[in-house]
Every structure is written in structure tokens, then in C-alpha cells.
Amino acid sequence: MTKCKKEKTTAENQQVSEENVAPNAAENVETATPEADKVAEGEVAESAKTANAEAEEWKDKYLRLSAEFDNYRKRTLREKMELIESGGEDVIKAMLAVADDFDRALGAMQTATDVASVREGVELIHLKMKETLKGRGVSEIEAIGLPLDTDLHEAVAKFPAGDDKKGLIIDVVQKGYKLKEKVIRYAKVVVGE
Fold first, then answer.
1. Can you tell me the mean pLDDT for 96-101?
2. I need a surface site. Which of 118, 138, 174, 175 has the fewest CB within 10 A?
3. What DSSP string runs through 47-84?
4. How far is the C-alpha of 144 from the C-alpha of 127, rounded, in Å?
5. What percent helix, strand, coil does the chain show, rounded to 5?
6. Edge-to-edge, what's the strand order for the sheet holding 153-159?
7. What pTM value is reported for the model?
8. Residue 189: which H helix or E strand, with range?
9. Segments making up each domain of the chain, as ranges
10. Does the pLDDT at position 37 exceed 60?
């Protein structure tokens, strides 16, 4: 019985202490809640203000960057158009001197009696034109006596030739040209078979 009495007393003591604690805990929660709510609301409001300010800052940066990129795109497009429009200007200026020489040669042919001097003048103009093109990076594609290279040549005909010229280019119908390393006109050639 003593054991039962002890258990009963212990259970009563626990119940009494829980009753004493429960009202105190409720009071603590009730008194702490309004202050905690005010502090939490202040922290949330401050955090929201900071987040809004940061969002506005990023939005401003984005808009500025977007406008700057748009201006860059427009400027490069304009520069590219100007380059295309005036890109051949230096070649044209160089060729004007050759055109002037041709005009003088045509005028001289009207009154010339010596065919050899006219021929020599035209050959000089032709040489000047080749040198002008070479100075601008234009070179003639070699063809005669070489094997057909489809990266440089366009075969327009085959012609019977001896065994020693089989597969080789025996005639050029139209000369081909490269600008630096890029083919700008393929050489039209006749290939021996």
C-alpha cells in the first residue's frame, strides 16, 4: 500500500505542478506575442523595404544594360553599312588611273599611224592594271599544265590530248582570280582526256 500511496502522491504532485505551469506559460505567451509580433512585423517590413530597393536597383541596371546593348547593336549595324558602302572605294580610286590611261590610249589610236607604239601603250596599261589588282590582294589562278582542282577550276570541256596531258588543263577559257586566299572567280578550263 505504501507503494500505491507514493504513486498517488507523485501523480497528484505532477498534476499540481502542471496546473501551476500551464497558466504561467499561457501568460508568457500572451504577453510575449504582441511584442514578438511587433518585432517580427518590423523585421518583415524592413526586409521587404530592402528587397524592394534591391529589386529596383537590379531593374534599373537591367534597363540601362538593355538600352546600352541596343545602342551598341545599332551603332555596329550603322558602321557595317558604312563599311559596305565605302568598302570598294579604294579599289575604285586605284582603277580610275587605269581607266584614264585607257581613255588616253583610245584618243591616241584615233590619230596614231604606228601600230607598234599603240600595242606597247596598251600592254603598259594592262601591266598597270595587273599591278594595281595585285597591290589590292587580287591574284590570278594558275591553270595551264596543272591537274584539275575543283576548288580553283571549273571544267567546261574535255578535249582529246596525248597520254602526257591526260587529266591536265590544256586551255583556259576564262581566267580565275583569288582575293587573298578566297576564290572570287573560278578559272574556266579545258581538260585533256
1. 90
2. 174
3. HHHHHHHHHHHHHHHHHHHHHHHHHHHHHHHHHHHHHH
4. 20
5. 70, 15, 15
6. 153-159, 187-192, 169-174
7. 0.55
8. strand 187-192
9. 1-86, 88-136, 139-193
10. yes
